[in-house]
From TrEMBL:
Pfam families: GGACT (PF06094). InterPro entries: AIG2-like_dom (IPR009288), GGCT-like (IPR013024), GGCT-like_sf (IPR036568). Residues 6-138 form the Gamma-glutamylcyclotransferase AIG2-like domain. The lineage of its organism: Bacteria, Bacillati, Actinomycetota, Actinomycetes, Kitasatosporales. Transmembrane segments: none annotated. Gene3D superfamilies: Gamma-glutamyl cyclotransferase-like. This is Gamma-glutamylcyclotransferase.
Length: 140
């Protein structure tokens, strides 16, 4: 499995509720970044990124988090548990997928792990969810 950085866009952002508990002291860098081809929906206290066509112009704002190599395995496990993700489990709320994100600082495209809404959740959100305009969790 690749040791990709993580793209975070909700409660794991700096200053949000889960940042300190999961990321503090386990990262080398946290850089503003954008995920294209996704929209953001309100969840019960946290957002869901839902994939959209790449040419839709949809974006999600967040941060690219590079983990400390010594903490990577533990961090990956902790984030999978937080996001209630288990490979192949049909009950997943999120799926962890590798996607390209764009660093805001220099425009570089970087492959990263992103937790996106699982297919069943995504279908429910598209049908009746509350879209977060502009794809930015912070000013909601």
């Amino acid at each position: 499995m690749s040791r990709l950085p993580f793209f975070v866009y909700g409660t794991l952002l700096r200053g949000e509720g889960n940042h300190d508990a999961f990321l503090r002291g386990r990262t080398l860098s946290e850089t503003p970044a954008i995920l294209t081809g996704a929209v953001l929906y309100e969840g019960p206290g946290y957002p869901y990124a839902v994939e959209a066509p790449q040419d839709s112009g949809a974006v999600v704002h967040g941060e690219l988090v590079t983990a400390d190599p010594a903490a990577y395995a533990q961090l990956l496990h902790s984030l999978d548990e937080l996001e209630e993700y288990a490979p192949g489990d049909p009950a997943n709320l999120y799926e962890r997928v590798a996607r390209d994100v764009t660093r805001a600082t220099d425009g570089a495209r970087v492959r990263a792990w992103v937790y996106v809404a699982a297919p069943t959740v995504a279908a429910e959100l598209r049908a009746s969810g509350q879209l977060i305009k502009g794809g930015n969790w912070r000013p909601r």
